[in-house]
Design a protein that fits this description.
Layout (H helix, E strand, L loop, with lengths): L9 H4 L10 H6 L3 H13 L24 E2 L9 E9 L3 E10 L2 E11 L6 H15 L9 E5 L3 E2 L4 E2 L11 E2 H9 L3 E5 H12 L8 E4 L7 E5 L2 E2 L22 E2 L2 E2 L2 H4 L2 H12 L9 H9 L3 H25 L3 E4 L2 H4 L1 H15 L2 H5 L2 E4 L6 H21 L11
Parallel strand pairs: 2-5, 5-9, 10-15, 15-16
Antiparallel strand pairs: 1-4, 2-3, 3-4, 6-7, 7-8, 10-11, 11-12, 13-14
Length: 405
């Protein structure tokens, strides 16, 4: 069984205008979607809705659902109480977050989100990140560690962002050392796909499983891997760069120097470029994947074709991942969540047609569960993972719980 059989969420009940958890692209078109996404997460978790922050931002510092406590995976149980901070940097939005860890408990306690505005360049964006994070930390103790999630490529070991395609001009940005200097605390960097995989494994759709693949399906496309309960980064931490796979005919938008790539079919930028190419509306302004999705729901034949094509290629790509890795769960974020009605059936047909029957029978394909808060949980998971790794390296093996000084 590959389809999610969970009860319908509040957003489903509101009809196709609000189809599930939106990603940040949706918020630019309709800011009210941010609150629908929050309600969706609330209903899915059985939480009560909270209040929002100032216009254009999300502040969960005093929201009712920010007081929900998660049980940490047993591998992440700590023996003390402390704070961690998270910074999520995306091509559309950034967020800064603060969470409290107490033994086996995790609680997101504050969050601020704002537009990246990539045209202003990395220095202006990072200065705003530092300003926003400093404001969160102004009246609390310093966090044990700061976790940063960002699109790759990047050098996680040395904390350097290396020219992500969704962040033009972000060339060799030594972000970990910068934040360590600014805040006087350790800082860890991780690819956003790997960080999101950890978040959905720990707190979201992959809870309780040992083997998980996460596909971003946002502005770009990448994969994060959790294998045997641990993140798998491969040589240089670069595993999961599936967006460059050639998964279709050598036509259409080019990604990674070639047409037919997985990312060209299954990403926000790819969907928009395919729509413009097939419709002949190259110069049309205000087109986004959300706009194309709604046009498909309204019967636009070109938009319908673009999403049918994306669904087929998504299923084929997932089939390759299932055959190679035999995961228990494949979690798909971004556009798959808010356009699940347009993508699910076509992707399922392609997956069943292409994947090994025994392997696909043992795998569930689910939309990401953490919704608009995924970036916060992902960046906090980078911090948690770094603490676990650091304490494990220092441990003599006799501790039953990890201690944070």
């Amino acid at each position: 069984m590959v389809r999610d059989a969970r009860p319908r969420l509040l957003a489903d009940l509101l009809g196709p205008t609000f189809p599930g958890h939106p990603d940040e692209e949706a918020f630019d078109i309709c800011p009210g979607l941010r609150y629908i996404s929050s309600f969706t997460l609330v209903i899915q978790r059985g939480w009560l809705p909270g209040r929002s922050g100032e216009k254009g931002e999300l502040d969960v510092g005093r929201a009712a659902w920010s007081r929900v406590t998660f049980e940490l995976p047993r591998e992440w149980v700590f023996g003390s109480k402390f704070l961690i901070a998270g910074v999520d940097i995306g091509g559309t939005q950034c967020s800064v977050s603060l969470a409290e860890v107490s033994g086996a408990q995790f609680q997101l306690i504050a969050r601020r989100q704002f537009a990246t505005k990539v045209k202003r360049g990395p220095e202006a964006t990072l200065a705003e990140v530092e300003e926003r994070l400093a404001a969160l930390l102004s009246d609390v103790e310093l966090p044990a560690v700061i976790g940063v999630s960002c699109g790759g490529p990047l050098d996680a070991t040395n904390g350097v962002i290396q020219s992500p395609p969704n962040l033009p001009g972000w060339d060799d940005i030594a972000i970990s050392s910068r934040f360590e200097k600014s805040f006087g605390r350790p800082c860890a960097l991780e690819n956003d796909a790997n960080a999101s995989a950890s978040a959905e494994w720990a707190f979201g759709a992959g809870r309780g499983c040992r083997d998980l693949v996460f596909l971003t399906f946002g502005t770009g496309l990448g994969a994060g891997l959790i294998l045997n309960g641990s993140p798998y980064g491969g040589s240089g931490g670069l595993a999961g760069e599936v967006g460059h796979w050639r998964i279709g005919r050598d036509v259409g938008p080019a990604r990674y120097g070639k047409s037919g790539s997985f990312e060209a079919f299954c990403s926000g930028n790819g969907i928009v470029e395919w729509y413009r190419e097939l419709s002949g509306q190259d110069a049309q302004e205000g087109i986004s994947a959300l706009v194309v999705a709604n046009r498909a729901r309204d019967g636009d034949p070109v938009a319908t074709e673009v999403f049918a094509q994306a669904a087929d290629r998504l299923g084929r790509g997932v089939a390759l991942l299932v055959d190679a890795l035999a995961p228990q769960v494949v979690v798909i974020g971004g556009i798959y969540v808010y356009a699940n009605d347009l993508l699910r059936d076509g992707a399922e047909r392609a997956l069943l047609a292409e994947a090994h029957p025994q392997l696909v029978a043992g795998c569930r394909v689910l939309p990401a569960e953490l919704g608009a808060l995924l970036g916060s949980y992902a960046s906090c998971c980078v911090a948690l993972r770094s603490l676990v790794d650091r304490q494990r390296d220092a441990s003599d093996g006799s501790q039953s719980a990890l201690m944070v000084s």
